[in-house]
UniProtKB/TrEMBL annotation:
Major localization listed first in the record, in broad terms: cytoplasm
Cofactor(s), by name: Mn(2+); Mg(2+)
Protein name: Isopentenyl-diphosphate Delta-isomerase
Subcellular locations according to the entry: Cytoplasm
Cofactor binding comment, as recorded: Binds 1 Mn(2+) ion per subunit. Binds 1 Mg(2+) ion per subunit. The magnesium ion binds only when substrate is bound.
Recorded name of the encoding gene: idi
Length: 178
């Protein structure tokens, strides 16, 4: 499957830019880079999660938060988050707010490593989503207790970064919907 030739912003341990690399190169070599992840809650306090499309180059078919991406060189993290919500879920002009930053390094396939300094965003969303089938296989809304039980009983069904975010910040993420 072809992998898009996109660039990511490389960063030092404090998240300060140090250069640019191809997305695939950064993941193959485990180079630390910038990322964003968005968490959306509805009025019932449920979180929107998505199942990654089968054609994704890593973690296909796994469940994750509303969306994730890498800011392009010169792109602000909030703009990258908003762009990706539109590309993946058809959500335009989302009301999202910075939540915090998480750094992690994890293997996501036999040949790919995520080493990210990730800006998290949260927001409230109660409208329908229009998933792009090239990016998203399915979406669903799920409550905190049900999600945490599902992740605990079947962790292999969830993207590694999503499990990390939930482990470190689940209570705050479920109360930070904006």
């Amino acid at each position: 499957m072809p992998i898009p030739a996109e660039n990511v912003v490389l960063v030092d341990p404090e998240g300060q830019p140090t250069g640019i690399a191809g997305k695939l190169e950064a993941h193959r070599r485990g180079l630390r880079h910038r990322a964003v992840s968005v968490f959306l809650l509805n009025g019932a306090g449920e979180m929107l999660i998505q199942q990654r499309a089968a054609g994704k180059y890593h973690s296909p078919g796994r469940w994750a938060n509303a969306c994730c991406t890498h800011p392009r060189p010169g792109e602000e993290p909030a703009a990258a988050a908003a762009r990706r919500l539109g590309e993946e879920l058809g959500i335009r002009s989302p009301p999202i707010f910075p939540f915090g930053t998480v750094a992690y390094r994890e293997t996501v396939s036999p040949t790919l490593i995520e080493d990210e300094v990730c800006q998290l965003f949260t927001g409230r969303f109660d409208a329908a989503v229009r998933p792009n089938p090239a990016e998203v296989a399915a979406t669903r809304w799920v409550g905190k207790e049900a999600l945490l039980m599902e992740v605990e009983s079947t962790p292999e069904r969830f993207a590694v970064w999503f499990r990390i975010y939930l482990e470190r910040h689940a209570p705050a993420l479920f109360s930070a919907g904006g």
